[in-house]
Write a structure and sequence with these properties.
Length: about 325
């Protein structure tokens, strides 16, 4: 955003219009008409004219000073906006209605890898996969109709044709009531998408696991249990156990041992693995192989395995 000569001219034309259209004609008219109006008394006329002209000069000086202050304010505001745009980590790109890039900030350089020299004057479609060209055109067309596109996720191509995931917000640029282009704000969400995909895979693996798995928050409540965990302890629907305390799965004596002997080792070493005795809803017990690990934030992950058959084989 640069305050160029055309912007300054437009500003001055708007604010100094009284000078050519009102003040100067009025001064000339008074100079011609005052002697006649005042009865030809030239000395008195000159004094009156001098006072009028002094008053007009003061008014013009005040108007000029005010306009100068306003112009400086505009310069400072535009400079501040330019600084904000330039330091933004998001890509902020200005495009014409035809999709030609006309501004390119440092965030755009960092995300896409193109310098301003390489990007300015080129079609924004260079950032899109050829298969997404039609979608890109539709987005720009919607904005040229006055719509705002908010948080639209799609794949872009950075320099070298490397794909990245971005979230787009596109707003029309207005000159009075005319849409002259669009402002495109792009945020790189590649890592977030990868993390979400990884978490989805981990959740699927936990759900399919034959071992029982539970995630316990710092208050001791179960915030996740897989189907195997519920089945091992004799519950049909794991969802109904969300929010229940992990203590309900153990006898009182066993729970005391877990709290006094095992949990201190978990908090000290980060994990513990051994055997424990679980409690079913009908009051029966079951031998377990259990692994407990601490996680950031004070929570726990429990992995349990029913070792009833192994214990029977050992006793034989």
């Amino acid at each position: 955003m640069v305050l160029d000569n055309s912007s300054i001219s437009h500003f001055l034309t708007r604010t100094l219009w009284p000078l050519p259209t009102l003040v100067l004609p009025t001064t000339l008219a008074i100079n011609f008409l005052a002697p006649g109006i005042l009865g030809g008394h030239w000395t008195f006329s000159i004094v009156v004219l001098a006072l009028l002209q002094i008053g007009l000069s003061i008014a013009l000086w005040k108007l000029s000073a005010r306009n100068h202050n306003q112009l400086e304010g505009v310069r400072e505001e535009l400079s501040s906006l330019q600084s904000i745009v330039e330091v933004s980590r998001d890509a902020i790109i200005g495009v014409t209605n035809d999709g030609i890039i006309m501004s390119w900030n440092s965030g755009a350089r960092a995300i896409y890898g193109y310098s301003a020299k390489e990007a300015l004057g080129t079609p924004i479609t260079m950032l899109f996969d050829n298969r997404k060209g039609a979608e890109a055109g539709q987005l720009i067309e919607r904005v040229t109709r006055g719509e705002i596109v908010s948080q639209h996720e799609m794949v872009h191509l950075k320099k070298g044709r490397q794909p990245i995931d971005v979230s787009l917000t596109i707003c029309p640029i207005m000159d009075r009531r005319t849409i002259t282009g669009a402002s495109v704000v792009a945020r790189d969400i590649t890592e977030r998408k990868r993390a979400a995909g990884s978490l989805a895979q981990q959740a699927a693996a936990m759900k399919a696991s034959m071992d029982g798995m539970a995630i316990v928050d710092r208050s001791g409540d179960c915030i996740y249990l897989n189907d195997a965990y519920a089945k091992i302890f004799g519950y049909a629907e794991p969802q109904r156990l969300f929010g229940a305390s992990w203590e309900m799965f153990f006898f009182e004596d066993e729970l005391r041992r877990l709290k006094e002997e095992i949990m201190p080792a978990v908090w000290r070493d980060g994990s513990w693995r051994g055997e424990a005795t679980g409690l079913r809803p009908n009051g029966s017990s079951l031998p377990l192989e259990i692994s407990i690990s601490s996680v950031d934030g004070g929570g726990l992950v429990q992995v349990v395995r029913d070792i009833t058959e192994r214990k029977k084989a050992e006793e034989m």
